[in-house]
């Protein structure tokens, strides 16, 4: 059964611009997801390969050796097959005499033979019916039979062991994007009014609805249908078929053997290729292809899709992030992809070593001479702003956890750089920060105060200008969101100038012996990697500028 549908006219009219709203909402999420992209790719590939080899080579039970209780493929390798491709709005199909439903017919397709004659393709235009335009559904019914035999069970020449088929939906249903809650806080932005008007067109019926209201579903057209015949002639034990194979095995009940496995390959069909179906759609493109697929490739596709589902269930991957990973393989250069994966591993190693040496340095550090205590405080404030911004934008728990741990570490470093005391003299206990003697008793504090004094002039001016621009020309959910987004933008764009106090202290003291050199070395290597790949990997411009912040200590 398809998901519940809303009113026909409302569902169709909003589908045309729904994709644009989704793109606007996800544009801000790309910035949050970029940091964990490399770890997600590594985890998915590792899990997929591990599951595949475990299911391939480790059997839960001893397979019986008696050939009489083994099931095998009913068809032989290289056997010629005929194919019929029907389109119908009914899930069950038996109208074989309807020539209008038959849109593709191929003959003499060699089964499990690799060559140009085993792959066939067709592109056509389909004119949707009125029912399909109003959240209707459409099914593809594909039948194969040995050459010379019909797929129709009512035909006198029909042979049950010579024909097989499967049904696949050509229309999928996705929830309609909710109305954008962002608005112009001043209410006088021309650009904001235009975007808000477009948002009302998309979801005018839900403008005043609550978040817990009914979800409206919209039908989307799949422009590509790829039919793969799995090259599988394995003899499986009758009662011990591998669990990753059993759901796809089409067993013939009388003989106990199985028909060739039909796999509808949608691995490379990205969501942004779907076409929203509404009243304005008069013609839809349908690209069809039939061909063989190896057992290894088929299982690899299945395991990767399962790993995507596991990551989504644990919150380590957001909706749509799997398509972005696939897009890297589709549109990226293979050599660049290999280099990127190798460099990502180095980046992770350097990140871990920098983190370890940073903790060791501040844990063993007994003197603040030559170190900027105010830079440590500002670094904590910046990390806290980013954490609150991610929390306000419904980021996955994995990214939130990483940012939260970093925030706690920065606060711990404040305790190493300054004395933290709890003042209980008032009604509400408050934290008091006091400079350490090694910091206040020499020139370090004087130079740090001078650097922060002039730096604050520049920083406050940039923050004010950026915040005013964001308030006038951008939309926000609330004043709180505006404050967070403005501060976060400043952290990303101007965070690299936070290194200035430490540089000023180094210049005045004419020494750098007090700095954590090991941590700086690993950060320097990571900065080179970030600066190099920031202009190669697709990411928002704001996030691309943020790589310059890695130079701060």
TrEMBL record:
Keywords: Membrane, Transmembrane, Transmembrane helix. GO terms for cellular component: endomembrane system; membrane. Residues 1-38, 179-211 are annotated as: Disordered. The chain crosses the membrane at residues 335-355, 375-391, 397-415, 454-473, 479-500. Residues 7-22 have a biased composition (Gly residues). It comes from the Eukaryota. It is found in: Membrane. It is a multi-pass membrane protein. Residues 23-38 have a biased composition (Low complexity). The keyword Iron-sulfur does not apply. InterPro entries: CLPTM1. Pfam families: CLPTM1. Belongs to the CLPTM1 family. This is Cleft lip and palate transmembrane protein 1. It comes from Populus alba x Populus x berolinensis.
């Amino acid at each position: 059964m398809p998901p519940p549908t809303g009113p026909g006219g409302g569902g169709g009219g909003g589908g045309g611009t729904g994709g644009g709203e989704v793109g606007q909402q996800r544009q801000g999420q790309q910035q949050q997801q970029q940091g964990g992209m490399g770890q997600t790719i590594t985890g998915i590939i590792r899990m997929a390969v591990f599951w595949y080899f475990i299911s391939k080579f480790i059997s839960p039970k001893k397979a019986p050796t008696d050939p009489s209780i083994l099931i095998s493929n009913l068809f032989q390798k290289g056997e010629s097959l005929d194919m019929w491709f029907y389109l119908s709005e009914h899930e069950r199909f038996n109208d074989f005499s309807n020539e209008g439903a038959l849109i593709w017919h191929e003959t003499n397709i060699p089964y499990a033979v690799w060559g140009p004659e085993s792959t066939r393709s067709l592109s056509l235009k389909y004119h949707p019916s009125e029912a399909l335009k109003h959240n209707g559904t459409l099914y593809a019914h594909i039948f194969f039979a040995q050459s010379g035999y019909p797929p129709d069970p009512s035909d006198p020449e029909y042979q049950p062991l010579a024909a097989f088929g499967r049904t696949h939906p050509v229309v999928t249903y996705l929830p309609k994007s909710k109305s954008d809650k962002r608005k112009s806080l001043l209410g006088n932005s021309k650009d904001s009014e235009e975007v808000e008007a477009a948002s009302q067109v998309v979801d005018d019926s839900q403008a005043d609805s609550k978040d817990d209201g009914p979800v409206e579903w919209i039908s989307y057209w799949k422009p590509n249908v790829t039919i793969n015949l799995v090259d599988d002639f394995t003899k499986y034990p009758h009662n011990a078929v591998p669990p990753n194979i059993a759901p796809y095995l089409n067993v013939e009940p009388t003989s106990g053997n199985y028909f060739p496995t039909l796999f509808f390959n949608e691995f490379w069909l990205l969501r942004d290729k779907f076409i929203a179906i509404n009243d304005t759609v008069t013609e839809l493109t349908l690209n069809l292809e039939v061909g063989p697929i190896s057992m290894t490739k088929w299982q690899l596709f299945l395991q990767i899709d399962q790993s995507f589902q596991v990551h989504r269930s644990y919150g380590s991957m957001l909706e749509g992030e799997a398509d972005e990973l696939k897009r890297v393989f589709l549109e990226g250069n293979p050599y660049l992809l290999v280099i990127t994966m190798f460099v990502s591993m180095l980046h992770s190693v350097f990140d871990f070593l920098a983190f370890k040496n940073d903790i060791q340095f501040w844990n063993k550090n007994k003197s603040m001479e030559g170190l900027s205590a105010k830079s440590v405080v500002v670094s904590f404030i910046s990390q806290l702003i980013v954490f609150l911004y991610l929390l306000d934008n419904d980021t996955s728990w994995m990214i939130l956890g990483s940012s939260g741990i970093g925030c706690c570490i920065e606060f711990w470093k404040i305790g190493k750089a300054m004395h933290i005391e709890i003042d209980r003299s008032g009604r509400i206990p408050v934290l008091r920060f006091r400079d350490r003697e090694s910091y206040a008793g020499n020139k370090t504090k004087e130079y740090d105060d001078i650097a922060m004094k002039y730096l604050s002039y520049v920083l406050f001016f940039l923050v004010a200008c950026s915040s005013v621009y964001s308030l006038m020309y951008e939309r926000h959910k609330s004043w709180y969101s505006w404050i967070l987004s403005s501060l976060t933008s400043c952290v990303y764009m101007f965070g690299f100038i936070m290194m200035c106090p430490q540089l000023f202290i180094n210049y005045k003291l004419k020494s750098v012996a007090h700095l954590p050199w090991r941590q700086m070395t690993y950060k320097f290597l990571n900065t080179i990697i970030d600066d190099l790949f920031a202009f190669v990997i697709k990411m928002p411009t704001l996030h691309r500028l943020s790589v310059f912040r890695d130079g701060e200590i």
